[in-house]
């Protein structure tokens, strides 16, 4: 599997998280007022800078920005245009069509655009101050490109990174991108935990206290917070990898039904049969699998639960106990310790006990049932991070686990991007159906329009 690029890694975040990371690093990059000028998609890319200014003579010139578009040779570019004049356009539909054809990802203007419907029709993202109908012809001229420009008080250099979404536009200095991405991953993980804390009943005044945000600045091995709001200091020096954080983020807005449908469409068996949530969890828990296999105990018996010291922050412990329901492999001590170490949750092909602790702590636990008899002297750990079976599904170490109140699905790590993309397409189609029936369409009409009956249909050449 190819390694994700920097742009792939950046694309899993939103502008809010990146803005926060820049704040913590004392870097300027977030802008105010450069918003999407139609309902366009999020974009990430590298800056190709352009500066325009008011025209001061009557001599004919090449239309501004066209030389920059013609010179683009890669598919990672975002045009960053500074110097716009209030009420005068420096972008239009012809430029949008030309840029789209060249594979340019979008445009950010510290100025105005006209013919915005033309950009929308070809699906070309444009961010800026606003729209107008007044042409740039004989009013504006290009005075430079490929040099530092000022965008709402932020200096943007050629090849800096750009991310823009519904909240606005952020620029990231190219030489600090690794620092920003690493910190953004920590911020995103922590904010997810904070949301889960609120959903679990934690007081928002405690969850959002300044001291809790200050933890982000510390080394991850020094302090974290669990879903229940408990600070864990020096409990877990094992941080999630950058790739783990990126893959987990792919599924942050999906639920298990949509992921299950995506797996069906791609011909992947990943639904864990008979594995159910301990409680009616309101959110979705996602994490890379830390696999554990139990076997009947030897004489003398071996280790039962010491593996948990090797589990990283954000991992999902996935335990194969061969579906045994006559003895447990997880109880309240494991729940408490997992929570303190920032472990995402636990899946067991078997049973758990001491369930009150897990329910009170809102620790995500998914099992084949619950019973009170201990597994000590009955089972022992045979190996970790080897392939196992859970609910009739094969799970490899570091596969992506997605779990919620509906159950558990396993996404093969090397298919995570394809599954996430398919899930998102399915979710959009189903949202379209809900919107149509909300506006008076019959369900038959809505399903036909959206192609509902083919959403989960397996591709002819899908991998099994």
From TrEMBL:
Signal peptide interval: none
Pfam families: RraA-like (PF03737)
Keyword tags: Magnesium, Metal-binding, Methyltransferase, Transferase
Biological process annotations from GO: methylation
Cofactor(s) required, per the database record: Mg(2+)
Record-level Gene Ontology MF annotations: metal ion binding; methyltransferase activity
Annotated positions binding Mg(2+): 354
Keyword set includes Methyltransferase: yes
Binding residues annotated for substrate, in chain numbering: 331-334, 353
Name of the protein described by the UniProt record: Demethylmenaquinone methyltransferase family protein
């Amino acid at each position: 599997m190819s390694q994700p690029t920097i742009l792939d890694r950046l694309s899993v975040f939103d502008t809010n998280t990146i803005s926060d990371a820049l704040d913590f690093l004392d870097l300027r990059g977030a802008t105010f007022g450069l918003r999407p000028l139609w309902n366009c998609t999020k974009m990430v890319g590298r800056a190709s800078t352009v500066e325009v200014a008011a025209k001061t003579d009557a001599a004919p010139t090449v239309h501004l920005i066209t030389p920059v578009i013609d010179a683009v040779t890669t598919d990672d570019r975002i045009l960053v245009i500074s110097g716009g004049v209030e009420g005068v356009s420096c972008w239009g539909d012809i430029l949008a069509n030309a840029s789209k054809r060249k594979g340019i990802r979008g445009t950010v203007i510290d100025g105005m655009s006209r013919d915005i419907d033309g950009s929308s029709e070809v699906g070309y993202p444009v961010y800026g101050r606003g729209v107008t109908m007044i042409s740039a012809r004989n009013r504006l001229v290009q005075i430079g490109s490929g040099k530092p420009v000022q965008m709402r008080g932020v200096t943007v250099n050629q090849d800096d990174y750009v991310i823009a979404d519904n909240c606005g536009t952020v620029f990231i200095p190219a030489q600090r991108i690794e620092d920003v991405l690493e910190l953004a991953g920590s911020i995103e993980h922590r904010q997810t935990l904070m949301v889960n804390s609120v959903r679990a009943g934690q007081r928002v005044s405690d969850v959002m206290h300044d001291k809790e945000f200050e933890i982000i600045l510390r080394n991850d091995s020094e302090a974290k917070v669990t879903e229940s709001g408990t600070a864990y200091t020096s409990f877990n020096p094992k941080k999630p990898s950058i790739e783990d954080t990126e893959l987990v983020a792919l599924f942050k807005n999906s639920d298990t039904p949509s992921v299950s449908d995506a797996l069906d469409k791609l011909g992947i068996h990943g639904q864990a049969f008979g594995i159910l949530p301990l409680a009616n969890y309101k959110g979705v828990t996602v994490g890379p699998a830390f696999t554990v296999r139990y076997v009947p105990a030897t004489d003398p018996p071996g280790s039962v639960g010491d593996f948990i010291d090797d589990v990283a922050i954000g991992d999902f412990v996935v335990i194969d106990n061969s579906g045994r329901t006559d003895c447990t492999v997880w109880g309240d001590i494991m729940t408490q310790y997992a929570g303190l170490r920032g472990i995402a949750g636990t899946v067991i092909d078997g049973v758990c006990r001491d369930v009150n602790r897990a329910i009170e702590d809102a620790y995500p636990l998914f099992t084949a049932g619950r019973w009170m008899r201990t597994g000590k002297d009955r089972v022992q750990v045979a190996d970790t991070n080897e392939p196992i079976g859970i609910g009739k599904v094969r799970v490899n170490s570091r596969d992506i686990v997605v779990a919620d109140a509906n159950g558990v699905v396993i996404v093969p790590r090397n298919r995570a991007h394809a599954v996430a993309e398919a899930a998102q397409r399915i979710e959009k189609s189903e949202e379209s159906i809900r919107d149509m029936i909300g506006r008076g369409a019959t369900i038959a009409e809505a399903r036909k329009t959206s192609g509902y009956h083919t959403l989960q249909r397996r591709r002819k050449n899908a991998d099994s």
